[in-house]
């Protein structure tokens, strides 16, 4: 009987620890993805200005790719538990030679009920993230 109680407590503690650990891992993955996306968007905007070329970022279900004109510069994976919805923003995101987004708007990034909104305002100002 005492062994059953000890085993029950041990199994319960372990299962709670694993569950909390997985939640923290998912949250960290989402934060890292959003940070990488922010860095890429800012870099693309700055490259558009510095190089006087238009750039675009195209999103698919499982990745996004950065292009300079028709040349693909790089591609990044979107975590499988993360989804991206374009609300008023269009896909792909275009920056012209002056670093201005061509069609401003918003998009949502979701992961297990957590949502972040990326807002791309008119003009050449920087986008921002609303948690």
UniProtKB/TrEMBL annotation:
GO terms for biological process: establishment of competence for transformation. This is Competence protein ComG. It comes from Pontibacillus halophilus JSM 076056 = DSM 19796.
């Amino acid at each position: 009987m005492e062994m059953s109680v000890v085993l029950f407590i041990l199994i319960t503690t372990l299962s709670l620890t694993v569950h909390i650990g997985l939640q923290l891992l998912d949250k960290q993955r989402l934060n890292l993805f959003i940070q990488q996306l922010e860095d890429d968007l800012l870099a693309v905007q700055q490259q558009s200005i510095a190089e006087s070329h238009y750039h675009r970022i195209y999103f698919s279900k499982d990745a996004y790719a950065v292009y300079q004109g028709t040349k693909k510069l790089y591609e990044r994976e979107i975590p499988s538990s993360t989804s991206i919805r374009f609300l008023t923003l269009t896909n792909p995101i275009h920056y012209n030679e002056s670093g201005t987004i061509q069609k401003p708007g918003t998009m949502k990034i979701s992961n297990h009920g957590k949502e972040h909104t990326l807002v791309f305002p008119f003009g050449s100002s920087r986008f921002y993230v609303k948690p």
